[in-house]
Write the C-alpha cells for this entry.
Amino acid sequence: KTYTEEDFDSLIPKIDFSWNKIDGAKNYLFEIKNSQGKNLLSKVVNKNSFTLSSDDLSLVSENGEYTWSVTASQTINGEEYTSQLAQRSFKVLIEDAETATLKTDNLVTF
C-alpha cells in the first residue's frame, strides 16, 4: 500500500499494521528493522495489530526499506511456545519539504 496525505489527515499521523490472528496465541512480538537488520522497535502486544504513531514514527523517518515481523506465542503448562517468524517489508519515501504546496482554494476567512 502506498500511504498518501489522506492516510495522515488526523492530527496525529500513524501507520497501522495488522496480521491474521493465530488461534491460541496470547501475545505477539512485533518488530521493525531497518535495511541493515538493526532492530528499531520491539513490542509485545496482545492483539493482532499494532499502530505506529507519535514518537515511534520517528523510527522510520528516513527514506529506505524497513521490515516488520510478528512472532506469536502462548504458554501451555508453564512452557512457552512460539510460531515461526512472519515478515513483510515496506518503503519510506519522504519528499523534500521545499516542494510542499499549500492549497488555498478552499480557505475560509472570517
